[in-house]
Design brief:
Length: 324
């Protein structure tokens, strides 16, 4: 039971940054903007969150700094694509490259220094319950924020007038503009929200997951978050499920290698032999499983055009210039 609880807690911790970043990108894409710079904003959030927490001693100030830096960094993308009408795909890729390079330069003085970890919440009585105690009542605050974020985004998009307005901008920006809706302003706010979420997701890595700073510590998680939005057909609760699926794949390959088969004699034969077979697989292949799963899922989805188009914002990635 203790081993199972430890594995589940680790999966939750690994899934949280994917969920936060993907929820922010979902709102961005629902407004009709395709921002491929999630990886760059995440890594900038990681370095700024670590630096602020290290210098102030407060992980909360670190998280706040990461949110601000992510939002400000996203403004560069918004200015280029929404005001100067540059290509969204090329600009997003450039933003990722800029974030990776700039974070490496800014974070160099902090390499090797111990970080300030955000403590887990402890509720007397509830946190001590077997199995579910630590899993539901003893997690870090960013886990609970991620769950609230899913609920809030789902409610906002499908239960409020403002959410309907945002979705209308993403589905047909020309008609929305004709009705007097400020298309550019709404998209600016959506991009900033996505940047803030990406920054917070990056801070989770350097303040909770591994409280330290190493260059390129996001390790492709921003790309997985982008794939999650497509995988979930732009639906918040599907993003939630997908994030935990990919988080489980990320953690499974670590625990498979650490398992002592001699201590698992109680497992049914098929499961025992499956674990034995996995332990014989090279660790490099197991480490690539989350990324291979991302590619496989995107290929399967792209084969079914009808499924892909069901919830896809019709104006996604299309530039908008008023009165032209």
């Amino acid at each position: 039971m203790n081993i199972l609880e430890a594995v589940l807690i680790t999966i939750v911790t690994a899934s949280t940054p994917l969920l936060i970043a993907a929820m922010g990108e979902l709102v961005v894409e629902r407004s009709g903007v395709l921002n491929l710079g999630v990886e760059g904003m995440m890594v900038m959030g990681s370095v700024s969150g670590f630096a602020a927490a290290y210098m102030t001693g407060s992980p909360w100030l670190g998280a706040l700094a990461a949110i601000i830096v992510g939002a400000v960094f996203s403004l560069l993308f918004a200015f280029l694509t929404l005001t100067l009408v540059t290509n969204q795909v090329a600009t997003g890729l450039a933003l990722t490259l800029l974030g990776l390079g700039l974070s490496g330069m800014l974070g160099e003085p902090f390499v090797g220094h111990p970080g300030v970890r955000m403590d887990n919440i402890h509720i007397p009585g509830l946190s001590d319950l077997p199995l579910v105690g630590g899993l539901l009542f003893g997690e870090d605050p960013l886990f609970y924020i991620s769950i609230l974020l899913v609920i809030a985004v789902s409610w906002f998009l499908f239960k409020t007038r403002a959410g309907l307005t945002l979705r209308s901008v993403g589905d047909n920006h020309g008609s929305a503009h004709a009705l007097g809706i400020p298309v550019i302003g709404i998209r600016y706010l959506a991009v900033m929200f996505g940047g803030a979420c990406a920054g917070l997701a990056g801070a989770q890595l350097s303040l909770v997951y591994t409280p330290q700073w190493v260059e390129n510590m996001t390790a492709g998680r921003g790309w997985i978050a982008l794939a999650l939005v497509v995988f979930a057909s732009w639906r918040p609760w599907r993003v939630f499920a997908g994030a935990y699926l990919f988080g489980a794949l990320t953690i499974a390959q670590l625990h498979v290698q650490a398992i002592d088969l001699n201590s698992l004699g109680f497992l049914p034969g098929p499961f025992y032999w499956l674990l034995a077979a996995l332990k014989s697989v090279p660790t490099q292949f197991l480490s690539s499983l989350p990324y291979l799963a991302t590619i496989v899922v995107l290929v399967l989805i792209s084969r079914n055009r009808r499924l892909t188009m069901v919830n896809t914002p019709a104006s996604l990635g299309r530039a908008f210039v008023p009165d032209r």
